[in-house]
Write a structure and sequence with these properties.
Chain lengths: 614, 614
């Protein structure tokens, strides 16, 4: 498309931004208007995308990191014919897929945005997939706001994109100077962004973001740049084209007061059609698959579940060519290094940058790669917003967190995950697993690869005894009744390390004539409500034991499962109620009241209580 | 101290690092050894600190951002006489305060570290407190690892430190090249760090980190640099001084194999005493205090609780000179801007950098400022690791999150907090509050300022009716029974927006002859277990309603409170179980089953169930 028509297309995008926000009576039209020319040149002359087959690996990807500029994205969709004008005007309505911020409910959107500073890290994941795994010439274009450059995650992405030499990645920085509340720290000093980007290893181009010729040249230069990513730093004007709001504070996130006047000022309604070029057909690289031979452990051996994770993942990688792993510079602790050694082409080191790590995993899975991301479970808290947004992206994400709870010992509370189960249970579409032995871990790792949504596996630092035979099966949503008899007076519910403490407690209780049922709740979400309800009915008394804080963990999950079934039982929750500190693992399990001795004491107390029949 | 003695002191720190790690059989001595000379020069010649009065505002602050190098910090404490040699050798033991990573259990430590990339953002908060609030010449020194430079939060700190012209802040970058698992992305290319730091507005000095004269000059230069912070970029060798481990991978986080040989190689045990200079006595600036005159709202008016937050905080700021606020570039949405306008000297804009925002609040409170931090509740998830670590820092932190739940409407799920209650309940020492009206909000905001630990207040985007008189009192841990009678057949438990829905449901149930008790659980943690237990006993049936996902929120908190009291009731949890999307607030409350109509239907269903006597 030529310059004149590109300018007209930019005006069309502005008009449509004003129109759909006016129809919705909300939205961020001024944020779309600043980037309208940048997007006009992109979609008309550079973007290669098959709207009929949005999942094609050869497609370019366009991420609106400034997701609030959704009016602009939807204006593009209208221009390409992907949606009708009528659909555009349903913007933000309950029955429309055109939400306030883009999500993959829209077929041509891969990842949800709207929490700022996430688009570029996601783009890094997609860029790695295209360049290193698929080995296709498809490009990733990220429309980026200037306000969101204050998010540290953006700089993680800058560093990783350069480290992985992602010359297929172009960031389009829309420097309109104004955030929601006022000016950014940098304002229109484009040179500051240039210096920062260059210091992080990027190629930089500064332009007037309303000069379509300059934009055209910049994109061509980006496409020609080899060995490093490019950022096009564009001086733009927020609300460009409508004098009443141009470069004015106070117009963020608002429909215009007089949309008809604005449309007239912008030259009125247009119906320019954009024929987005389709990419050439090409075959993405794939890796061989084979038979799954999970590691097998002898009952009675002592093996850390984190080690079993690494061994199982390496085996899974041999069986499935689509399995990929990332880790946050702790692969020798999480044992992801076993996968890295076995499948070096499918392992990507993310260094100490957990936000980028999770975002990379989301990007990789968006290109169809079955991605496992690991770090200490405590440090997934660093990426919690990315995990939350991954759920909105409808991502299939496998997260593996090691070093759970006080059982890690001497390193102290900063390294102990004690809120992870609660925070990850609360994520929509999540699955939360915590195996207690190596064989169980291996089976669950294999199951994770076929589980939809956000799947979290919590592994243990210390060795624990193998209690299950290698042939036993474990399914997401299941549990295991390890001990039971007809006379069970109480049920002990553990998960992970506390299963072993519960078993020891059951031994000592048995010596006193109290028979205890022991349930291993290795699947905390979904939880095996049926087995728990049956135990409640049979024993009337339950002790739950978790190496976690008391809120939102195993105990609460059990209570919720019983409530759903209308079961009433006397339930006593044992959990870590104090801020723990350094010490030996056994010392800490005891000090915080979750070892065998405390479990037995709690059981005795419950059994001694007068019976309340339900 | 002169160069020769400084070198000896550095060796002493190395020897002590080896010794205490050997005693503990764990720890990170090689990480302490790289920075030993850097710390020797600092504490002997530059650091000003009154060990007898560690909370003095005039004191310098030293933050070990690389908290795993704790052996070095404790070696310093021994050299200053703050701890004995015997205490040093109790490192990492259960009864010792010298934990694996430093925490404020140690009187001379202000903030916990151990999750990397947090020390510098915390230092920014302390630096702002010293320079802009206290207006004292005290300095902040941050010992920083090179691996942790990959964390985006570090770049948030770089940008904010320059923006606030923190010339009292010096980062000491210990570039030993090696992370836990291998080399960093940058290695020993110090110029890359220099270019990045300069691009972010810092003064930079590159040195050999084992040359005590160079270190001495660098610190002197940092002290003389005005208007911007300084980073001393030091080329160092991990494990320096012990050939067997020097610059070798595989020696991260391990005690040495032959500590006696290493000590001999380092020149043996030393007992150099360091007399740390005390700061000159000076008076920190303070702001006037006055009588608290909270805003008052008329019953029946419609006011958003987020607005009441802003108005109450402005009033609190007038009453208390120690109250300070920060916000993440959304102050016109959270209404923190009302405080900013009323008390501009005590408001600090943190832009879209939630990690830095929370870290700044932790740093500010560490200097005694009563700090409120606000953003959309959903975006506190971006700083979840910082909040978790703030609990380990024993921080008193007031977090205020607006835009809770689906009631925000059109903006869609990226802006809806639906996991916030679960994740924040799980933080140790936390308090979770959710007012439903403006007068209640004002009272709770005032109470927050006197509540210890991590206090989270969740505010609402839409207007809600004022239902409480301005003179009513509300306390942390309380609840309000809004409706009750002798014939209550069921209890409806709401919080925030669902209180109003529960009231409407109770109205319609009453028309059908079902009298419902309605409880406003505005304090979700601690929760008013007594009132809930009484309701369980009286009505036997409870419906909980929350604008939040079902896991770990209000419903689970109620179930847990009932279980603690041994109360059994039939409890039905209403919560948002699907991934929501854009729509009008009322439409969404209905679509996700938490409006009055769904509450009434659930109540009818429970009342119709056959009674189970408890």
């Amino acid at each position: 498309m030529e310059a004149n028509e590109l300018r007209e297309l930019g005006q069309q995008f502005r008009v449509d931004s004003v129109r759909c926000a006016a129809a919705a009576k909300s939205g961020h039209p001024s944020s779309g208007m600043s980037a309208a020319d940048l997007m006009a040149v992109l979609v008309a002359n550079h973007y290669r995308f098959d709207f009929d087959n949005p999942k094609r690996a050869e497609n370019d990807r366009l991420i609106f990191s400034k997701g609030h500029a959704s009016t602009l994205l939807y204006a593009i969709f209208r221009a390409t014919g992907a949606i009708t004008d009528e659909e555009l005007l349903q913007y933000r309505q309950f029955d429309s897929i055109l939400e306030g911020h883009p999500t993959p409910r829209i077929p041509w959107v891969d990842v949800a945005t709207g929490s700022l500073g996430q688009g570029l890290p996601l783009g890094v994941g997609i860029g790695i997939a295209a360049k290193q795994l698929d080995q296709l010439p498809s490009r990733v274009w990220v429309l980026h706001g200037d306000s969101e450059m204050a998010e540290g995650s953006v700089w993680e992405a800058f560093e990783h994109a350069a480290h992985y030499e992602l010359d297929n990645l172009t960031a389009i920085l829309d420097v309109n100077r104004l955030g929601q509340r006022g000016e950014t720290m940098v304002g229109w000093n484009l040179d500051i962004y240039r210096d920062r980007a260059q210091a992080f290893g990027w190629h930089t181009i500064e332009i007037d973001g309303h000069d379509v010729d300059a934009i055209e040249s910049a994109y061509a230069e980006a496409e020609q740049t080899k060995g490093r990513p490019t950022v096009v730093i564009a001086h733009t004007i927020k609300g460009k084209g409508v004098k009443a709001i141009e470069n004015q504070p106070g117009w963020h996130g608002k429909a215009l007061d007089n949309p008809d006047d604005a449309i007239e000022e912008l030259g009125g309604l247009r119906n320019i059609h954009v024929d987005v070029a389709r990419p050439e057909t090409a075959e993405a690289r794939s890796f061989p698959s084979g038979k799954l031979e999970l590691p097998r452990y002898e009952v009675g051996d002592e093996v850390a579940t984190r080690k079993a994770y690494g061994e199982a993942l390496a085996a899974l990688g041999s069986a499935r060519g689509d399995v990929v792993a990332v880790d946050g510079e702790v692969s020798n602790s999480t044992f992801a290094d076993l996968f890295a050694k076995a499948h070096p082409e499918r392992y990507f080191e993310m260094y100490i940058a957990e936000q980028q790590m999770v975002a990379a995993a989301v990007g990789l899975q968006a290109r169809g790669w079955n991605t496992f991301a690991s770090t200490f479970a405590a440090f997934f808290s660093r990426a919690y917003d990315f995990i939350r947004m991954a759920a909105i992206s409808r991502a299939n994400l496998r997260l593996v967190g090691s070093h759970a709870g006080v059982s890690i010992g001497e390193d102290g509370p900063s390294q102990m995950a004690l809120e992870d189960i609660a925070s990850l249970r609360a994520v929509h579409s999540s699955t939360v697993l915590q195996p207690c032995d190596a064989n169980q871990t291996a089976k669950l790792v294999a199951a994770m690869a076929d589980t939809e949504g956000i799947v979290f596996l919590r592994t243990l630092r210390p060795n624990t005894p193998v209690i299950y035979a290698a042939d036993e099966d474990f399914r997401v949503g299941g549990s295991r009744v390890i001990r039971t008899s007809d006379e069970d007076a109480i049920t002990l519910v553990g998960s992970g390390v506390t299963v072993h403490e519960a078993l020891k407690a059951a031994d000592s209780l048995e010596e006193e004539g109290i028979t205890a049922r022991v349930i291993d709740v290795y699947s905390i979400k979904p939880i095996d409500a049926e087995t728990l309800q049956a135990a409640a009915e049979a024993t009337g008394r339950i002790v739950t034991i978790e190496d976690h804080y008391p809120e939102g963990g195993l105990g609460d999950a059990v209570l919720s499962a019983l409530a759903e079934g209308g079961e009433s039982a006397r339930v006593l929750k044992l959990a870590v109620t104090e801020m723990p500190h350094s010490g030996k693992p056994d010392e800490l399990l005891s000090a915080y009241g979750i070892d065998a001795e405390h479990i037995a004491a709690a059981a005795r107390q419950l059994v001694a209580e007068p019976v309340t029949t339900s």
